[in-house]
Each structure stands twice: as C-alpha cells, then as structure tokens.
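Methods: example folding runs. The two proteins below were folded one after another, and each record is reproduced exactly as written to the output file, sequence line first and structure-token line second.
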Amino acid sequence: MIATPNKLSTAKQFSKAAGQYKQHAHVQKLAAELLFSRLNKHSQVMLDLGAGPLLHQHKLKHHSDCLVAMDLSLGMLAETHPENNVNRVCADMDKLPFTDNVFDAVFSNFAIQWSADPEVLFKSLYSASKAGSQVLLSTVLDGSLSEIAQAWKAVDDKQHINDFLNLTQLIKIAQSVGFKVVYSNQHCLQDHYDKAISAIKSVKNIGANHLTDCQKEQGLLGKAAYKNLLSAFPLQDGKAVISYQVGILELTK
C-alpha cells in the first residue's frame, strides 16, 4: 500500500522512466558493484529493496535460495519477465509488508534516499532481518547533484534539488535501532555528458527528478530561463558532469 500522494507521485515518476532506466543507470550500476564486492555469503531469503527493473536479479539469485524484489513502482517491477525464485512485491519502503526475522540478507542499491522517515525504515529492516543477517545499502548523500544546484542559481533562488542525509546521520540512525555497522564509506560517482542538456535530462531518465517536498519548485521553464540554466551549468574539461555522493553501508543484526 502506498500511503501518501507524494509517494504515489514518486511511483508514477519512476514508472514513466522504467522503459529507459537500464540504459541510463550508469552510476547506479557502479554503486551496485561496490555492494557486490561486499556480498560474501549465501542466504536462504534475500530482500532486494528498491529493486527497480530487477537489474541485479541474476547476481542476487546466485547468493540466495529465494529472492524477494520490492519496489514502489509497479512499472519498474513489470519491466522484466517473472523468473523462478523472484517474488515481486509492490510496496512503500516506509511501510514494509514483511513479518519479523524473515530475511538473511538485504540488498538495496540507490533506493533508501526516497524514504520519508529513515528511522522508521531502519527499524522495519531491523525487525525483518534475522540475527546475523547482512544488510548492504547504497544511497545518495548530501552534496549530490551539486552541478545542477549551481546551474539553477542562475535562474532563481528556489530549491530544485532534494535534501539528502550525510553518512554520519545514516550511521547514527542505523545504530540507534540496533544495527552494528560493519563497514561504511563514501564515494563520488560521476556521469559525464557532452552537453549540459544531456546531463540535466539524465536525472529525469532514471526517474530521480521528483522532488519529495511539495514546497520545492517544479514546473515548466520559459525558453529564456531554460537557456540561462544550460549556460550556467559548470563544465569540467569541456564535459557536463553529474556528481553523486554515494554512501555504502554494510550492517548486521
């Protein structure tokens, strides 16, 4: 069940991007590889939280007897044909529909930043995880999309980028609900484009352009304002770069 209008809007945005997500999710794939490097055991039941179009189902199935793929977007989950031992659940991560002590492992790549209440999410993950479980998370952190934020300053003084937690805040939340932090690190992962317009559109292409705060500015721009936005986009060696600050966490119960 998706409880709020904002979550319904987020789900709709990701469903729109479902068909093109795979070809544009470059940074997400890099973050997933960082998580896979720490996936070190076989599990009976694994949760892929924020599974999207099930990009990682084949690798994750090698590490589990039963894989549960959960996502807010039904469109994302519908992108791939059903396969054996992949159970699909369309649900809100802030209202996990699972019983206690069911998962030996949790894998979540580029998803938990969409939680409206990270403390509630971590409590639910803790309850749903078995003792000794491995919980691997990658998430977008504070400082991400700084190039887009800088470009928007040439247009207006409103906020056009979502707020993200920093790594220290995430660690404190995880520890406060009972998790032990086995590993934590922060990486700057980047996409490079020939033009500013391609860099800006890249965020929309993966469905990540939805603003979680309704008070933040959205809507269409006039031609002059859009030209200013593109002109103000900072370049690195002639390339338009989108930077994501990515936190990697390995937790255990």
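Second run, written to the same file directly after the first:
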Amino acid sequence: MRTPLRRSAAASLVLVAALAAGCSSGGGSGRTEAAPTASAPSLSAAERVAGEQDGTAPTGGPTASAGSPARPTAPGASDGPGHGPSAPAGPVRPDAALTPATGTFTPQEKKYLSGRVPASADPAAVLDIGRETCQRLSRTARHDKDAAAAAVVAGDVRDAADAVSHLCPDQRPVLDAARGGYPDGTHASPAAGRYRSVSSGPDCAWQITDARGTQLAAGPAPGATAPHTLTVPAGAAGLQSTGCYAWLRA
C-alpha cells in the first residue's frame, strides 16, 4: 500500500476540470439526487452507496458534503490499474436479487453488480457508480488520455478496471496506458523500466533505493522541468515519489 501524499497543484487543476465534468452531467444514467437543504447538503444515492461499499457511510444523517464521498486508498502497481475496494464491507445482495425497480439489467450490468451491492442498497444506485466512472474516463480521455490514465493509477477513479470490463470496454486503451504505473507514495520492489510523470507539480521529487536503503537514483536534476522521466534499475528495492502525482510507463 502506498502512503497517501499531498496531490500536486497542477494535478488538482487538471482533474478538477476534467474529472468533475463527468459528475456535472447525468449522462442519462437515471441517478436520483436527494433534495438539498439549507442546513446540510445531501449525498446522491450513488454517493451514499459508495460510502456503504467502503464501510464509511455517515451514521448521523447527511452531514458530509455532496460530491465528496470517502475515497478508497489508491492501489499500488501490483494491484493493477483501477483495482480498488469494490466489495461492500457488509452483507451483499445475492445475484438472484439484482433486479431494478423497473426494466431489466443487461448481462454485462449484472456482471458488474455481482458481489458489490450492499444488502440494503438499490442495485441501480450501485450501477450509477460504474456509469459515472465510465463518464469520467471518457470525458477526461477525450481531453487528455494521459491524464485519464494517471487518474486511474492515482486512484482518483474508483473501480475503473471493473467498470471498463463490463460497462465501457471502449475505454480499455486508458487501462492499458495505466498498467504498470505508480502513484505518489512508497513502493517496494518497483518493476525495472523507464517511467514518465503526468501532471507533476513544481515540488515533484523521487528516489530509488536498494535493499539496504542506499540511494541508487534521485531526481529531478537541478533545473529540470516537467514532464520528468526516471529509470528503475533491475533489483531496485524501493521507489519513493512525492508531488509527482502519477508515473506511467514510458
């Protein structure tokens, strides 16, 4: 697991502009929004279910800010791109009970829902989470494919691999670009090879160490400007990165 670190300002600007666009449009997904109140903004059905899936659902009423569900810990490269917590912490609905209030689910939608719908949740709300993931990937990739892949690596798009596999296979190139990447943090036994930074900030820095903690390489070089590149040698035991947001295979 990586150690969560502060995202760079540059990455924030890219993702706020590109990813948040996916949430601002319903995209025909039929998401039901709870009516907001003056005293406490409400969570959407999909956001409430996301909290149940992560085991972080609010217990004292809608006190969390709308649009800000708890985010799962970003995966390391060994987990594969876009693999985060997807199974609910508690009991789930059996596959036979995965039916919408009206209409039917497609076979692929049922595969996406299998094992991830909390027993007390509406399956359609869980499906909305996957649809929103697809919308975010699609909108971001149209603007900048690297930014979409970096968001998957950094864990800013939840359950991307499952959503793409079952709901939006046209976004497979984004997952392919994210495969083998590393987010900011500390990673043991990084895969040897060359990597490039995406959306790195001015404070981007990294180091590569051996099994005894001896520094093998570090960067950036004085005066170097983004995007940065680094090479992990064979046998490296550790990679530490901060302020760089995400690294993709070069």
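Comment on the second run: Confidence is low (pLDDT under 50) at residues 1-50, 56-79.
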